Amino acid sequence: MTMDRMMIQGTGTPLRGQVSISGSKNAALPIMAASLLSEEPLNLHNVPDLNDTRVMMDLLRDIGAQIVLREPQDGELSLSLKSPQNALNPESPMAAARKMRASVIVLGPLLTRLGRATVPLPGGCPIGARPLDVHEDALQALGAVIHYKDNALHAFCEGGLKGATHRLRVPSVGATENAMMAAALASGTSVFHNVAREPEIIDLADCLNAMGANVQGAGTETLTIHGVPRLHSATHTVIPDRIEAMTYLIAAALTRGDVTLTGANKDHIQGEIACLHAMGFDVQAINATTLRLNAAEVQPKPAQLTTAPYPGFPTDIQAQMMVLMTSIAGESRITETIFENRFQHVSALKAMGAHITQNGETCTIHGGFPLHGADVEATDLRASSSLVLAGLVAQGTTTVGGLHHLYRGYVHLPEKLQACGAKVERLGGGSYAHASATGF
Ligand code: UD1
After folding, report:
1. Which residues are catalytic?
2. Which residue owns the Cα nearest ligand 1 atom 34?
């Protein structure tokens, strides 16, 4: 057991207070990669200061990009990223790429800008096979030739990518982003069907269009991209993190507390709010960016949910919902359809006293049995936050290890919970992000 752990005292005290929502990790990563598409600077605001965004900075620097960064304020970074043609090396070793699955997002931009790219095979959360066939098929439709060698993906295209019509086998988020960025500089028009519709896709399209691209249909099942010869400088503010917002709303519901989120976007979490509503929890919109969940008087009901691509219930919120379900008397059910290995938090929750039975891709949660503190290990990013939430309501002390998963995706999680009265403490010190960035 390493010393770098989170210790949570299960006080049973309802969380009360205000939480400021950070920028979206999953929107920021592809948008940062989009800077590879232009000679001119891309200025970004509301980039969350996380291990994953720091890894993406390392990766872009490996490739030759120049990054100027304002030191973080409240976990938020402002970046200026510039990718001069003669500085870029699409076959650099990219050591950072293996640290994060989302690294594959540099493939489309490099290929379309420079005609070739070699990307080491990515890492990330160990939540299943996560193949890249949908990325490959989309890029091949535009004329790319792809092969694997030495644990890396090699791609090239002679004479540049050419617009084409293609249907994605599944609406993969990353593949949609790669295809969109590749097509932005391809010659002619590309039409992609069965694309992902997540808010992060719309944010990337908005950023690309601000850079001079012509992307239409983001948020629908079909993207139409009229290729342009070059992109130019732009300034963009990343959308709020809907997964983080839901994690804190669930924490409020779980502790029967009263928490107000600032800097959130209700439109991005309509389905999840409806799910909470069906359980008896109401989310009140104070204004366009402020949401409040007051669970003090709620007598919640069990629920059933199935994860699905947006606008379905996000797989990234499934683990946190499972913890909430353990607190509600009766039988709840979760079916996971996106990743085949995303119930790894179940054994840790059982070690804390949860009554959960798993049958293939469905878990039945027999709620209402009190949890007790335990020493548990986080196995992936969202599992890590679910275990911290479980610790808030468990009797006694819980410690959570495997914190590197948590630091990939949650800005200042202990501090945000502490501000609402939780007894959460980081053991073993260390800082969230590694100090590889340079400021000015
Ligand atoms: C993104 C999110 C991640 C979220 C996931 C699903 C980022 C950085 N990460 O991951 O937090 O959990 O969407 O909402 O945005 N698949 C294939 N072949 C492919 C690509 C994907 O079979 O080429 C499968 C995957 O194994 C998975 C499903 O499609 O079963 C969805 O994956 P995808 O949408 O690509 O997820 P990511 O973009 O990796």
Report:
1. 125
2. 172
